[in-house]
TrEMBL record, chains A, B, C:
Chain positions recorded as carbamoyl phosphate binding sites: 69-70, 119, 149, 152, 278-279
Higher taxonomy: Bacteria, Pseudomonadati, Pseudomonadota, Gammaproteobacteria, Halospina
Quaternary structure (record): Heterododecamer (2C3:3R2) of six catalytic PyrB chains organized as two trimers (C3), and six regulatory PyrI chains organized as three dimers (R2).
EC annotation from Swiss-Prot or TrEMBL: 2.1.3.2
Residues given in the record as L-aspartate binding sites: 97, 182, 237
The name this protein goes by in its record: Aspartate carbamoyltransferase
Length: 335, 335, 335
């Protein structure tokens, strides 16, 4: 699947044209995304936070699964790139009138949309769209089923690089419900591609993936063992519906065993980073004093989320334009 | 009604100031709208799809009936004209606090709104507003009751002209639930005004209008007869609630008799256009291979929908400004 | 509370940095807000209604209580200042996933938001946020509990000044459910700060505040006495849920006693202004002929609402920037 993911996401000359998953992107491309995002960090600090890279472009946020938070970050990123943004809550729209997903997308494309940001409950939906429905519209995956959430993974990589400079030699623990997490899947791939020393998965056996060794990760069921000496601790969100499914004992039981407390954090390296994708459940996944403590970089992750989304949006738009013969010479230049 | 529709929609010197219905607009005005839309087609193909015609203007989308699709096309059209857009879902807003429709509109006008795009379940609501409530705000009818949907009709005219160059000599069949269709009513009027040779209505007797001859159309109850030799086939959407009202036998029965299949299409001219306002119900109103076939111009209609909306919005804004003495000399110029 | 409200809302050199309540702002500051708003009135009359004061700034409308009308006025005001606007209906968002209010706000701040416009059912929520959560984001109070609605009060002051030139010597009656009205609380404070001669509260005893003399107002339970000779009559909205709570007899009974009819209005000065925050309930709080009559300035209040919001948004943004050392020299200049 790596090969086809590469050819699907990249132009013949190796530029990004869709951003669907970390699979298929090599270390050089991930580094290029991080470097581009770095250049946008500065934009967020300016009083005028606009760059004209997507001026006159139409970005459609197509959220088949509701997520105000993620949608807002893409909306802000697109507006800071000067794009026109259309938010569609697809659950209440045309698809309910008997129209197929493909027809909905072809209609939006016919309105001269340039980019679709897609969140979908079904794994692989963004790939299917990029391959078979609207290959000439830049597709950004904003989370598909249990499969991938690549912008979340890349904002985490940006945060790690800001604090640790390099990935070589790092040991990173991912803690929580790995089994159902599209975020974890993307993180593991990104960490390995960028060359960390070791990825550890810490979870009860019921919440581990089936063949972790294929993913390039070691598994631990005891928090104390998993965190020992790590440089980065990435907590996952606990999905409450899993507990009702009897895969987990109870919130308090989970917190006792896998919640990140000050005490458990002492097993990690003294300068270990504490990360969490948010929104955080204080006292369920993480102790308040840890979330607000000196090792926490959680709010930095949020800031980096805007920069990463600006990076992949501008790079994919640029790659799409490079692909279109007819528009040669007037393409957007991403740095 | 034609006369009053003319004086209501046009300035004393014959420019558009509201766009409420095809009634009252002559062939020269419809042609001007099509020509203006043609100039915007090119805008949709540019990398920077913005023109500054409505810059600093405030367009309010007032949808008393929900329609994500139509609202999105007006929103995109307004943004490409550089307007500020406010979307109001009126069902959940002030009118539920006991405020009258007139007061809601006068309040929005007092906020210095320049244009209202109105969809309303009641026939004539946009006319009432343009005549009696806010005559100095440009009113665009986005569909009122069973009465009119003039931008849909005009995008259809634009599509026909693109492929057939002229309307003279054309025979056009409109197929489906004519009786309840505001789209059909506007199409029949536009086709006759633009000078086609013949408009045919194809439907079961229960779904035909009462006096089709007044509309300037011939009726057919057999699809094979109605399509014979026509140059354009316009399918309508089947409203499922009509079937529950016993006006129609069943979806499969309707498809058998009036669904546009490859076989039935062979009765039309070999180069007949296939049109549909969308969203399409494949296998209910139209066979998939016809919707996707070489004669289908359905996606072209969508593209033209943006251009037509840009055209009537910029023309009505320009006409309104011409009307206002106080703002003489700084009016927007529509091409 | 006045003192702390002053230091919370103002920079050390006396500029606005949040706009939370009239409390703590002196006559000079209220006058500065009115003067700034006056300069924006002219903007609403231009064909291009944009000024670049908030260009590249991100304004987040955080409505914990729904209010389409108030949200729309802030959205329009922000767009006319050229800001990027994000509308968040917080009821359906992250807070429902177990995230605290503080965490939601810190996350939005981390996305480089510059201003929060906050409506909240709890009195004091905007103050709490400005003091303890995100002091470096400009906070605008769009109505909190029964406490304050300061932009509504200031748009009323602007309307009075437009028609009466000065506040000295004016007698102003506020009529209706004073007890539960955040608007009335802000109006009383603003009127007294700006130096009117007398503020009168007209209501049944059940709807009067507990200690009106502390607020600086005289109370009247008979409409005829309360209106005698006043220069301004400000009607309040009747909250229907109060009637169910048995604090009021019935709509018709209320209208008979406190509805503003032509007959009752004759007790006021002949050139008395008639004001109402909208949406109006004709025949419940006010007679139609009075709402539409020559003394009514209700629609002028709406127009002024946009100007006042533009004024406090641009002034608070400017004050915030003055506070930030790092951005010295590139701050927005409000007139």
């Amino acid at each position: 699947m790596g090969e086809s993911n590469a050819s699907l996401q990249l132009t013949p000359d190796g530029n990004l044209r869709h951003f669907l998953s970390i699979d298929g992107l090599d270390r050089a491309m991930l580094t290029r995304i991080l470097d581009t995002a770095d250049s946008f960090i500065e934009v967020g600090e300016r009083s005028i936070k606009k760059v004209p890279l997507l001026r006159g472009r139409t970005v459609v946020n197509l959220f088949f699964e509701p997520s105000t938070r993620t949608r807002s970050t893409f909306e802000l990123a697109a507006k800071r790139l000067s794009a026109d943004v259309l938010n569609l809550d697809i659950g209440t729209s045309a698809t309910s009138k008997g129209e197929t997903l493909s027809d909905t997308l072809l209609n939006l494309r016919a309105m001269a949309s340039d980019m679709f940001v897609i969140r979908h409950a079904q794994s692989g939906a963004p790939h299917f769209i990029a391959r078979s429905v609207t290959p000439d519209v830049a597709i950004i995956n904003a989370g598909d089923g249990r499969h991938a959430h690549p912008t979340q993974a890349m904002l985490d990589m940006l945060t790690i690089r800001q604090h640790k400079q390099t990935f070589a030699g790092l040991r990173v623990a991912i803690v929580g419900d790995i089994q159902h997490s599209r975020v974890a899947r993307s993180q593991i791939r990104a960490l390995n591609t960028l060359g960390v020393d070791e990825v550890r998965l810490v979870a009860p056996y019921t919440l581990l993936p089936n063949r972790p060794e294929v993913l390039g990760a070691r598994v631990f069921s005891r928090m104390e063992d998993g965190l020992k000496g790590v440089d980065v601790v990435i907590m996952l969100r606990l999905q409450r519906e899993r507990m009702e499914g009897a895969l987990l004992p109870s919130e308090s039981e989970f917190y006792r065993m896998y919640g990140l407390t000050e005490e458990k954090l002492r097993h990690a390296a003294p300068d270990a980073l504490v990360m969490h994708p948010g929104p955080i459940n204080r006292g369920v996944e993480i102790e308040s004093s840890v979330a607000d403590g000196p090792q926490s970089v959680i709010l930095g992750q949020v800031t980096n989320g805007i920069a990463i989304r600006m990076a992949v949006m501008s790079m994919a738009m640029s790659g799409q334009l490079g692909d279109r013969q007819s528009e040669q010479g007037e393409g957007v230049q991403a740095s």
